[in-house]
């Protein structure tokens, strides 16, 4: 790991007031990503430190994430934002839900390499994870789906009072309008759309916070794939949820 990357990890540890012991597992996550088989296009530590680690740790700006005891990260891919949050929040249990088995194997191996003990991987679609229903304080998702679809994945999995936190890019009126309509059907309410600046150049990053304010109707989750095929809230707007670079 280069000195610049080490310095950047130290900056993040200081910025979020993490214990010194979190430095090593964060570096080990970057080492795990620096492999041609890692299921992400951003592998070089000099880039991944921002695009994956800093962006994931932006969630720590939210008291609801800092205080959560159970977090489900849907569509975790190579493990983001779930694995860095597991390092930062040792008292929380993080479940990374990912539908592709090869990616689940990568997440498990990366968690082992970084000696992360409070994360588990569920190889399933979010809509099929029956054990997670009503059990999570927070659901996170980055680069998974339009906001309305995320709301439908997350609502059944949240406890009442729980929070969906969606990492999104530039704001999109259509997407937000559809999401608001979907949320109303699901027992969710849009609480806040918070601009964040996890690293220089991440100019349009927003965290969308949707609170579960009422029980989700029993007809959810719908069959796998339906949330995308027949989205709630009528028209689906554009999605600007890609990790920023
Ligand atoms: C673009 S990747 C984003 C990965 C990661 N969250 C990130 O930001 O780096 C989206 C991931 O979601 C997974 N996925 C798609 N639909 C899913 C679903 N319904 N349930 C669980 N995982 C899903 C895909 O296999 C893929 O790994």
TrEMBL record:
Signal peptide: none annotated. GO terms for cellular component: cytosol. Its EC number is 2.1.1.-. It is found in: Cytoplasm. GO terms for molecular function: rRNA (guanine-N7-)-methyltransferase activity. CDD domains: AdoMet_MTases (cd02440). Keywords: Cytoplasm, Methyltransferase, rRNA processing, S-adenosyl-L-methionine, Transferase. Its main location: cytoplasm. Residues 220-232 have a biased composition (Basic residues). S-adenosyl-L-methionine binds at residues 75, 80, 126-127, 142. InterPro entries: rRNA_ssu_MeTfrase_G, SAM-dependent_MTases_sf. It comes from the Bacteria. It holds the Pfam family GidB. PANTHER family: S-ADENOSYL-L-METHIONINE-DEPENDENT METHYLTRANSFERASES SUPERFAMILY PROTEIN. NCBIfam families: rsmG_gidB (TIGR00138). Belongs to the methyltransferase superfamily. RNA methyltransferase RsmG family. Specifically methylates the N7 position of a guanine in 16S rRNA. This is Ribosomal RNA small subunit methyltransferase G.
């Amino acid at each position: 790991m280069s000195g610049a990357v080490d310095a950047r990890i130290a900056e993040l540890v200081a910025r979020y007031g993490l214990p010194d012991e979190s430095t090593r597992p964060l570096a080990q996550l970057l080492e795990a990503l620096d492999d041609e088989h890692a299921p992400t296009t951003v592998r070089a530590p000099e880039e991944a430190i921002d695009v994956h680690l800093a962006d994931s740790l932006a969630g720590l700006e939210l008291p609801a994430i800092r205080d959560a005891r159970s977090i489900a990260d849907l569509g975790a891919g190579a493990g983001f934002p779930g694995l860095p949050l597991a390092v930062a929040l040792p008292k929380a249990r993080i479940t990374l839900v990912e539908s592709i088995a090869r990616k689940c194997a990568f997440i498990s191996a990366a968690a082992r390499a970084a000696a992360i003990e409070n994360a588990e991987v569920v190889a399933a679609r979010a809509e099929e994870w029956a054990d997670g229903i009503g059990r999570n304080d927070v659901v996170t998702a980055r680069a998974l789906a339009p906001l309305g679809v995320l709301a439908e994945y997350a609502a059944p999995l949240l406890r009442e009072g729980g929070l969906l936190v969606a990492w999104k890019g530039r704001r999109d009126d259509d997407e937000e309008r559809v999401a608001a309509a979907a949320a109303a059907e699901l027992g969710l309410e849009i609480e806040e759309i918070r601009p964040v600046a996890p690293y220089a150049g991440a100019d349009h990053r927003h965290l969308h916070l949707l609170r579960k304010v009422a029980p989700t109707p029993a007809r959810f989750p719908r069959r796998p794939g339906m949330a995308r095929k027949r989205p709630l809230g009528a028209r689906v707007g554009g999605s600007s949820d890609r990790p920023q670079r």
